[in-house]
Structures are given as structure tokens and as C-alpha cells.
């Protein structure tokens, strides 16, 4: 069903919400959540292969999975046992979630985040604006990241973004029901790719939720909070890119084997054969990088963070180049909206931007190398 409908959903820019809720209620959108909370309790490697499968069919559905999984992982990693018991069964029971970090002035540099969360009695109040949040259009629950200011309702007005003044770099992640008064969700118009993934901006204007919705403590260092949440997203995107590559490889190989030009199948012309070889190498190397990173997650290896960045960087770059190669092999047959390789080409490009752009990944990898020297 997903394979058959993916192009129509892409053109419409919408996924059927009933389908998403159904997948969610079967625990498929966040399959690593432990069974005690209604999940499948998959390890990273098994969840990764499942993510790649969905990614090979429809990157918009896979993007919703990534968001749901990232929200669940943040709750699992930072929530108290009571919060885990309160929220995780909702995410495996059909409710949909999204995770909001980015702001207009805080993209690659999340330390410039200006969303403020302040305590007021038994509640917290959020003010800020998040942008480009995947799946926010569909979400029932928003995991919002912001800076915490203990009872400092007025102190923030003049502080520079990213200065860390008044509220410092203490950060919080807050579970905000999307129907809370003061929340406004506005769809991003006409995204280049993953068009049905429900990207949206979120305005938070004096949004008040119970203080019990603040995950864990109120004094978490911002880098720890965002790195932990993003690590899950990176792993999921990386496996999703493996799926894009597999879909492109299948489509390109099938076309090159069956279409003839100059009296021979395309695949017998050496320059086209080279495209196929490159696509195969791209898929295999991305798969190996993801398998290695997932093994690090499953074994609790100290290399987990760098292996995840490496997997994301390799897979996203390979998917962007590989999808372009697939369009080249299909040429006019794949150069139109409605063909999976055309969709893959648009979707894959965005994977080089999200969850740490190519450049941010390269900087992190370089820092790792320098640190080891
Ligand atoms: P900028 O930070 O302005 O960067 C622009 C360019 O400059 C990039 O190429 C970047 O790599 C480069 N650059 C920036 N700083 C440096 C530097 N120091 N050195 C070298 N190069 C640099 N956000 C969420 O919170 N939740 C989501 O679910 C989510 N989903 C998204 C889905 C899609 C499809 C997209 C496109 C974005 C999504 N985002 C989401 C936002 C995403 O995280 C940001 O777009 C990303 O972090 C980059 O930020 P920016 O777009 O502001 O680019």
C-alpha cells in the first residue's frame, strides 16, 4: 500500500492520518520503544533495517517515523519512570509526535535558541517559535526544546540570541500537547522533498503545561540534550537513506536491463554500467556504515556518537549522489514528478541538511580526528 500510494501522497503533500495512526498503534513508528510501553523493543540494527525498508518505499512516512522515534527516545532517555509510563504508551498507541529544536536564527547553531521555558507554580510557560518541524502538522504531542529560566519572566527581553544570558545554557525538553492554547502550527509551504512529511512551524505564545511535562531535570546542558535527541534522528535518517539507495538501485538496474539503445540494453554500455556500479557501492558503503553505528548503539560502545555521525554523513551524501545517478540512468523515464527516482532525488537532497548538515557532520568528524591526534 505504501509503495503504491507514495507518489500520490507526495503530489498531494499529505499522508493519510488514519494510516499514520494505524502504524503508530501497531508500534511501527517507534519500534525501539521497549515492549513494556507497547513498543517492539527492537535493537538499533533491526529497527534500522525496518527504517530502510520504509525509506525505500516513502521518505515522507519514514520521516514521520524518525520524528516519532526521536520524541520517544527523548522521553525514554530523559523522562522519569512516571513520565515514561505516562507518555510512551501514547506514542505506541496511535498518537503522533514531533520534535522541535530549530528556530529562524538557530539552525546549525542551536545554542542560539531563544525559546524560553519558565516555571510558574505547578506549571511551566513556553514562549518561542520553532521552524521546519517534521510531522508537526500531524502531531498530537510536541517535544519542544528550549532554554530554562527559573521564574525570570522578564529577564530575557534584551539578551542576545545564543548569549546564554538569563537562563544560561540550562535546557529543557517539554512535552506539549498540540491542542494547548497558545500553540499555533503552520505548515511549511511546498517543501523541496519529503513533501508529505508534514513539516510545520510552531508558534508558542504563553503556552502553559503542567510542570510534570518537563522531561527529567530543568538543568540539563543544552549540548547534552540536543546531541542525545539528534543522535537518534541521525541514526534513523541514515538508515532511511540506505532505503533511498536501495530503491534507486532497483529502479536503475531494472531500467538498464530492459531499455535498449544502440541495439543493446543500457546496462551493456560501459558508462551506464559504471553508474550502476557506483550506485551499488553507494548502497553497500552506506549499509556498512549504518550497521557499524547500530552495532555501537546495541553494544553501548563509546564510539556510538562518532559512528552515528559518520553513518549519517556517508548515507546522506551517498543517497543524494545515488538518487541523482538513478535519474541519470532513467533519463526522461525518471525525470518527472510521479516517478520514484525523481521523488528520491528531491527527498535525498534534504537528508544532507537535516539532523546535522553535511558541513556540521564534517566539523564533528574533524573534531573527533583532532581529539584523537
Ligand atoms: P543554516 O544553519 O543557516 O546553514 C546554512 C548552510 O551553512 C548549511 O549548508 C550549513 O551546513 C552551513 N553552515 C552553517 N554554519 C556553518 C559552519 N559553522 N561551518 C560550515 N558550514 C556552516 N528542525 C527541527 O527542529 N525538527 C525537525 O523535525 C526538523 N525537520 C526538518 C526537515 C527538513 C526536510 C528540513 C530541511 C529541515 C528540518 N529541520 C528540523 C530544520 C533543520 O534542522 C535545519 O534546517 C538545519 O539544522 C540547518 O539549519 P538552517 O536551515 O537554518 O541552515
What would you note in describing this structure?
This protein is of the alpha+beta class and 373 residues long. The protein folds into three domains: 2-91, Acyl-CoA dehydrogenase/oxidase, N-terminal domain (Butyryl-Coa Dehydrogenase, subunit A, domain 1, Orthogonal Bundle); 97-221, Butyryl-CoA Dehydrogenase, subunit A, domain 2, CATH 2.40.110.10; 224-372, Butyryl-CoA Dehydrogenase, subunit A, domain 3. The protein is 50% helix and 16% strand. It contains ten helices and ten strands. It has helices at 2-12, 17-25, 44-57, 59-78, 81-91, 222-258, 270-299, 304-330, 340-351, 358-372; strands at residues 97-100, 116-120, 123-133, 141-149, 170-177, 183-187, 200-210, 220-221, 260-261, 264-265. Strands 1, 2, 3, 4, 5, 6, 7 and 8 form an eight-stranded mixed sheet that branches. It has a two-stranded antiparallel ribbon with strand order 9-10. Helix 3 runs antiparallel to helix 4 (59-78), helix 6 packs antiparallel against helix 9 (340-351) and helix 8 (304-330) crosses helix 10 (358-372). It is globular, with a radius of gyration of 21 Å. Mean pLDDT is 94; it is low at 152-167. Flavin-adenine dinucleotide is lined by residues 67, 99-102, 107-108, 130, 132-134, 194, 199, 350, 353-354, 357, 359-360, 363.
Characteristic key phrases:
373 residues, alpha+beta, Butyryl-Coa Dehydrogenase, subunit A, domain 1, Butyryl-CoA Dehydrogenase, subunit A, domain 2, Butyryl-CoA Dehydrogenase, subunit A, domain 3, two-stranded antiparallel sheet, binds flavin-adenine dinucleotide
